[in-house]
Amino acid sequence: MATPTTTVISVWFEKKKGIDAKPLIASTAADPGAALLCRALDAIELPCREVAPGNELLFELARKNVYILTTNIAGLKTGGTVSQLWARHERFARDVASEVMDIQDALTGVRLDRDALIAGMLEAFDGDPKHGCTGRSAPARRARAISHANEFRLAVPTLRSLAG
Fold it and tell me: Is pLDDT of 75 > 80?
């Protein structure tokens, strides 16, 4: 097997113009430059940790995807913050997350531990409970998820019920 030449990071901080960077949880990085990248982020007080390439990296990328798609797509219906989503609409959020994970399974050909992915999403919720669920990209993310579901002939009834 070839030696990896690309460093991959799952970024878990938000940075907007005029506002300090705000980490939710530690970003994760893998492959050749991961140690250097994590040292650089740690130096500016943005937590980072190295993960192994392969399944560990895949899990971290999937966790980020579950977080983003679940909050954005569910938020199209519920609005509010991530803590409100979970406190007031947990069943709905779980349904959205389950369908997002169905799509990820189809895209990657790997079925990851769903309970661990939900726990990882909740860890990020705890990192910024007041984080808004939707942003301007939410409708496009929903459309892209449904497009992937169509490609793999997945039912995803909850996601489809939100299509506008």
Answer: yes
